[in-house]
Amino acid sequence: MDEANDRAAWFKGGSTCCRTLPAPPNQLYRLVLLGAPGVGKGTQAELLCARFDICHLSTGDVFRAAKQLSCGELNPELERALGYMRRGELVPDETVLELVRQRAQCLRCSRGFVLDGFPRTVDQAEALQEMLQGESLALTAVIHFTLPPEQIVARLSGRRTCPGCKTTFHMAMQPPQVNGICDHCGLALVQREDDQPESIRVRMRAYEQSTSPLLDFYQNRGLLISIAADSSPVETCQHTITSLTAAAEAASPV
Ligand code: AMP
Q1: What is the CATH number of domain 8-147+205-251?
Q2: Mean of the per-residue pLDDT values for the chain?
Q3: Could you identify which of 45, 52, 132, 174 might form a hypothetical disulfide with 137, taking C-beta atoms 3.0 to 4.6 angstroms apart as the criterion?
Q4: Is residue 192 annotated as part of the catalytic site, yes or no?
Q5: DSSP string, 68-137
Q6: In a 3-state reduction of DSSP, which class is residue 180?
C-alpha cells in the first residue's frame, strides 16, 4: 500500500499521513466522542467514519493492539499501561499523551478524524488543545452520548468481540448467527477483560471522576453536543449528523 494512504498509521505510530487531498467543502470533521463506557462510542465512531470517510483514532484500540505484542516488543511503559487497562483503570496521562504525540500526524489528516476514548481527563484535553493550536487546527465538535446507567451495564455485560476482525456483538441485542462465533471469520467471540463486572465498576468510577469534568470543559468552549444514545446505532448516528449539520448552520454567517 502507498505509505501516504496508510489508514493504519494510527496503529503503527509512524510518521506517515493517510490523506493528502483536502476534504470536499463542508465535509471536514474533527470530532471528539465522549460518554460513559458502554454507551456505544466505538460503534458510533465507526459509523461516523464510514459516513464522512475520516479516520477512527481510538486510544483503547492502540492499547488492545499492544496486548498482542510479545514481551520483547513491549516497552516497560506500555507493559505497565496494559496493567491499568486490565483493571479498568485509566492509563496515566503521560503515557497516553506520549502515544498520541507519536501519532500527531493523524490529527493533521486533511479529511479529519473521530477521536474515540481520548481525551479522558482535563489534562489530556488541554494537551490536545495545545497540539491542535500548534498546527492551527480546531475541533469541529465534541459529541456527548448519554444513556441511563442500567442500560449501560446491560450493554457492557453482554458485549462480545471477535479477536480476529474486532467486530462487536451483543448476546441479547445483536447476537451472532451461531452462538459465540463471529459471523465474519468464524473465530470464537471473547469478552473484553475490562467488561468483567469488577472492571466495569472501576471504569464507571474513573469516568465519573476523571472524564465527566470534560463536559464543562467543552461546554464552556461552545463545542459540546449531547445526543441520547438509546435508539439503534444507525438512528443514533443519524441524530448525531443532524445535530452536527444544525450546529454548523448556526455557526456560519448568513
Ligand atoms: P476504551 O476502549 O476507550 O474503553 O479504552 C480501554 C482502556 O484503555 C481504558 O479503560 C483505559 O484503561 C485505557 N485508555 C484508553 N484511552 C485512554 C485515555 N485517553 N486515558 C487513559 N486511559 C485510556
Answers
A1: 3.40.50.300
A2: 88
A3: 132
A4: yes
A5: TS-GGGS-HHHHHHHHHHHHTPPPPHHHHHHHHHTTHHHHT-TTEEEEES---SHHHHHHHHHHHHHTT-
A6: coil
Q: Which of 236, 252, 235 is nearest to 25 (CA)?
A: 252
> Distance, CA 2 to ligand 1 centroid (Å)?
30
Q: What is the pLDDT of residues 21-51, one digit of tens each?
A: 777 777 889 999 999 988 989 999 999 999 9
The set of cell numbers assigned to 135 is: 498546527
> Cα separation of 211 and 190, whole Å?
27
Helix (H, G, I), strand (E, B), or coil: what is residue 153? Answer: helix
pLDDT value, residue 3: 44
Quickly tell me which residue has 498482542 as its cell: 68
Question: Ligand 1 centroid vs 74 CA: distance in angstroms?
Answer: 18
CA distance 194 to 89: 9
Q: What are 225's three cell numbers?
A: 453536543
As annotated, the residues of the chain forming the CATH 3.40.50.300 domain(s) are 8-147+205-251
Q: Residue with the nearest Cα to atom 1 of ligand 1? A: 60
